[in-house]
Amino acid sequence: MHGQAYKHARLMDESEWRIELAADSSEPEDRIVHRILGNATAYRRWASEHDFLLRTISGQGRLEGQVRALRSAAMNLVHRKSLYQYVKERQLTGPKRRRLFELFYGYRDYTNAVLAEHGNYVRCTSSLVCAEYLAEHLMHDAAIVDPMALYEERYAEYFRAFCDGELAETEEERVAAEPLDALRPLLKFQLAEARTAILSLPLAPAREWREVEIRRPTGQTQKIRALDASKLPR
Q: 34 in a domain, yes or no?
């Protein structure tokens, strides 16, 4: 990949344009972006944080450096939105949700912690949407599509295993979490491996990342059902 690095103003303008596109979209991520589009205060805070994030990218002197910095930023956004994503996926309420926030926030004001994390989730999701747009449509980086989706899937698996294990209270919950808890070191290793692989991918790869290619559905394959951890042999 050769070419001039993008100026900060261009990256910010393209990001703001992508946010505006969400107004007419019904995609799941864009429905989250709607929350900042209809709130001037939320939009200003997002714009300020996104501007700061983009400076780590625009500050790179070469396009190759910008691409890799954008990949790293996208993965960090995946991490930062994971807590509230877990709350949504597990539909946590009541004492269990309170315990989850105590894990990450300590015994501080629970209500403010939830509000802060929800706002963080909305802003990080919005910035991730922009990062994916910049990588795919402006920098033409193939790594932002399938490899990044696989990374997000792996991080969700690791984060889910961690939280499920920490929140297990009943005997049934502990039995269900035990196999996944044992897999945590492996999941962490696979996650680090995936991050290293993505950051080291050629900027104009001649072929796709091998694991992504292996996992792509074909006419001779079918999706395997997820295992019920409670039914795994012990």
A: yes
What is the number of structural domains in the chain?
Answer: 1
The mean predicted confidence, pLDDT, of the chain is 85
Minimal CA–CA distance to 13: which of 56, 64, 58, 71? 58
- Give the Cβ contact number of residue 19 at 10 Å: 23
Instruction: Spell out a b/e string for 51-71, using b for 16 or more CB atoms within 10 Å of the CB, else e.
Output: eebbeebbebeebbebbbbbb
- 214 has pLDDT over 50: no
Contact assessment for residue 132 and residue 144, using Cβ atoms and an 8 Å cutoff: yes
Hey, what are 204's tokens?
A: 């104009």
Cα of 206 vs its chain's centroid, Å: 26
Structural domain span for residue 95: 8-204
Give the model's pLDDT for residue 50: 98
Here the tokens at position 222 are 């079918």
**Which pair of structure tokens corresponds to residue 81?**
């939105």
Q: Which helix (H) or strand (E) holds 67?
A: helix 63-80
